[in-house]
């Protein structure tokens, strides 16, 4: 699903956030990306959906070299992925239903198809009963569930999450993680950057640890391995 070949990202200020990384993530895996603040985790994640472009090396998503895409092709790439952020990024004037439906309205779906799919994913995240509510009427955990529903409404092969539980309390974080587990169980590849030691240590999934822009550990059934 993901291949990085000798990937380096150097910013204009001279900081090398990712330094010669090569990695393969297989279809259907659930992978945690861990490491101290400033280690390069977010850059590593952003390279996958072309928020950042590699200075050197190749990033392939499902066989497509995303670094070679023209800027006008990037939105099409992102429509084929699901991306979940720490701060939800919901549109404040749209209801929960409309926020999720928005991702489908730019594609060639009929209104009936959109309604059916939106209600399916709202049901998956346990919020079909709050479809008409605006983001400010929802709790932080509920907003993140809507953000997850939006990310999977297009049936992506890959979901990328950058600190999705960072702003949530522990109980809500576990609820959010159970949703990601459901998504992965349906065959979707999940790559998640996180500082949540308890979740990583309990899940025992593949763990990729990054320090100073390089991969220092890559193990199946791994632990977080850092003090918070």
From TrEMBL:
Superkingdom of the source species: Bacteria
One family name in Pfam for this protein: ABC_tran
All copies of domain ABC transporter, residue ranges: 2-227
InterPro entries cross-referenced by the UniProt entry: AAA+_ATPase (IPR003593), ABC_transporter-like_ATP-bd (IPR003439), ABC_transporter-like_CS (IPR017871), ABC_transpr_LolD-like (IPR015854), Cell_div_FtsE (IPR005286), P-loop_NTPase (IPR027417)
Any one biological process term the GO annotation gives: cell division
Annotated keywords: ATP-binding, Cell cycle, Cell division, Cell membrane, Membrane, Nucleotide-binding, Transport
PROSITE patterns recorded: ABC_TRANSPORTER_1, ABC_TRANSPORTER_2
Main location: membrane
Membrane-topology annotation of the record: Peripheral membrane protein
SUPFAM superfamilies xref list: P-loop containing nucleoside triphosphate hydrolases (SSF52540)
Function, in words: Part of the ABC transporter FtsEX involved in cellular division.
Database matches in NCBIfam families: FtsE (TIGR02673)
Family: Belongs to the ABC transporter superfamily.
PANTHER family: CELL DIVISION ATP-BINDING PROTEIN FTSE, IMPORT ATP-BINDING PROTEIN
Name recorded for this polypeptide: Cell division ATP-binding protein FtsE
The organism's taxonomic lineage, starting at the top: Bacteria, Bacillati, Bacillota, Bacilli, Bacillales
Gene name tied to this protein: ftsE
